[in-house]
Amino acid sequence: MRAEYAEGEYVYLVPTLPSAPSAAYRLPLCEIRRVAGYRVTVIVDGAEIETDERNIRRTYPDVRPREPRAPLRPPMPDGYEEVTLW
User: Cβ-count burial of 83 within 10 angstroms (0-12 exposed, 13-18 middle, 19+ buried)?
Assistant: First the structure.
């Protein structure tokens, strides 16, 4: 579903696609300069950056901490011991 963006609108640059510009990782507030189909040109710190419209949002993105990783292997049951391989 395509969102409608207007020139002069303020949006947040968010890294969603692998092709997102490196400036998107700071989650900056930027102004839309041009809209051409799915490509949007925004101004970030005085520099124009062209990106896909999926890399921008109107609201501040939720920054959630990552979930802890699962242990690499389960613990040994009671009564068992680990045998060394060397």
Answer: exposed
68: how many CB neighbours lie within 10 A of its CB?
6
pTM of the model as a whole:
0.67
Q: What is the pLDDT along the chain (86 residues), one digit of tens a residue?
A: 567 899 999 999 999 899 899 898 888 999 999 999 899 999 998 899 999 999 999 988 877 777 888 878 888 889 888 888 87
Residue 5 phi/psi, 5° resolution? Answer: -115, 145
The structural domains of the chain, with segments of one domain joined by +, span 10-57
- Each residue of 7-37: b (16+ CB within 10 Å) or e? eeeebbbbbbeeebbebbeeeeebebeebee
Taking a C-beta distance cutoff of 8 angstroms, is the pair 36, 42 a contact?
A: no
